[in-house]
Design brief:
Layout lengths: L3 H12 L4 E8 L18 H13 L3 E7 L7 H4 L4 E2 L3 E2 L6 E4 L2 H21 L3 E6 L4 H6 L14 H4 L1 H14 L4 E9 L8 H14 L4 E6 L7 H4 L5 H6 L6 H12 L10 H4 L10 E4 L6 H9 L4 E2 L3 H5 L3 H7 L13 H4 L10 H5 L20
Parallel strand pairs: 1-2, 2-6, 3-5, 6-7, 7-8, 8-9, 9-10
Antiparallel strand pairs: 4-5
Helix pairs in contact: 1-2, 2-4, 4-7
């Protein structure tokens, strides 16, 4: 459920100058959860969600709800049910078995996305973001590595794109023009034999032709294996080991880098791939993500033809980063991409370099106190 701390977390970004803050990750059903403490978009959460949207609006910003179904990323210990995938699959990180989802269950998932979107409308959100990335359930249908179905949802990329198109179409029908509909789409996930730019361009083209989306946020990486392909920069192996069960800690310390992947950080690290999508879009605006920390990065993205720019870790380090960039165009972000913030999602999401979070509000009483979010907020 929404807490006062979650409201303060998002209000801090609104007061810091962002145009829209995204509440991530919101589950379309209880079995769609990817981690503990996530909000399920249902009537029970409505009152708190309304308090959240009112607070962000009062601070001068818009607010979006990211809607997702974890699919292969879900854990039976958390949801109480076996995770589902397009085809039978063994998660290479958790070694958990995922069963193939049935056609009837696919229809149920599509309806769940629509119901969650209606909750977002009723709660006063300005947009929903459909999570079609990182090998969560919709994204896993796009992956030839995971999707080996023989029906109309498998085979060619047009067939593998069917689920994301049907979700987008249904959500648009539910919300009509009351709020914006955005989708987060993997350009590639960094896994051999899985999603790559050539087929992702076709998926984007199909979604654009359907004209069901207002904008497409382009992303990379996977929550299944080698997640550092999404984040880039330092690999917080030691920190991840401390939050794992004691029996797993030695293995994490020994093999963590191999499992998580090592990818150097660079500014605008998704731009090279994302610029391939600019000429493909006719009806849908594009959102650039990845390594955007300074004003010059925003200006570069706009010159390249993107309509919006998305920031994550830089805002976690400095919630007022946008205001600072506007007042001081040459200022540099204080985020150093140590990525230890990834581990804080198991408790209070925060930048480990912020003394307010690390040592308590008394250290610097003039700063806000953000609280629980989830990993997607970092991206």
């Amino acid at each position: 459920m929404v807490t006062d701390d979650l409201i303060a977390f998002h209000r801090s970004f609104a007061e810091g100058g962002v145009g829209m803050t995204t509440v991530a990750y919101c589950c379309v059903s209880p079995e769609a959860a990817s981690a503990p403490g996530q909000i399920v978009m249902n009537v029970a959460a409505l009152l708190g969600l309304r308090k959240l949207t009112d607070a962000v609006h009062q601070a001068g910003a818009a607010i979006s709800a990211q809607l997702g179904h974890a699919g292969v990323v879900a854990q039976r210990a958390l949801t109480g049910v076996t995770a589902v995938a397009p085809s039978r699959f063994i998660n290479p990180t958790s070694f958990a078995y995922c069963r193939a989802i049935s056609t009837d269950e696919i229809r149920t998932v599509i309806k769940q996305f629509g119901s969650a979107a209606q909750v977002a409308v009723d709660a006063g959100f300005d947009a929903v973001e459909l999570h079609f990335g990182h090998l969560y359930l919709p994204s896993s249908f796009l992956s030839p590595l995971i999707n080996r179905r023989k029906d109309s949802y498998g085979g060619s990329i047009d067939n593998r794109s069917r689920l994301v198109r049907e979700i987008a179409e249904h959500v648009r029908a539910v919300v009509n023009d009351q709020i914006a509909v955005i989708a987060k789409l993997d350009m590639d996930d960094g896994l051999p034999g899985s999603i790559w730019i050539d087929e992702a361009l076709r998926t984007a083209q199909l979604l654009d032709g359907d004209a069901t989306l207002d904008a497409l946020e382009l992303t990379q990486g996977s929550s299944v294996y080698k997640p550092m392909y999404l984040f880039r920069g330092d690999v917080p192996v030691r920190e991840f080991a401390t939050v794992m069960p004691p029996a797993l800690r030695p293995a994490i310390r020994l093999f963590g880098k191999r499992t998580m992947g090592v990818y150097p950080y660079q500014n605008l690290y998704m731009l090279e791939a994302a610029r391939q999508f600019v000429p493909v879009m006719s009806n849908t605006k594009l959102i650039l993500l990845g390594g955007i920390t300074d004003r010059e990065h925003l200006e570069t993205g706009l010159r390249e033809g993107f309509d919006f720019l998305a920031m994550g870790r830089a805002l976690l380090r400095e919630p007022d980063r946008v205001n600072v960039m506007m007042a001081e165009p040459g200022s540099r972000s204080r985020c150093n991409h140590n990525n230890k913030c990834m581990v804080t999602v198991f408790g209070r999401t925060h930048c480990v370099l912020d003394p307010v979070q690390r040592y308590g509000a008394a250290a610097t009483p003039d700063r806000g106190t953000p609280d629980l979010s989830v990993a997607e907020q970092l991206t």
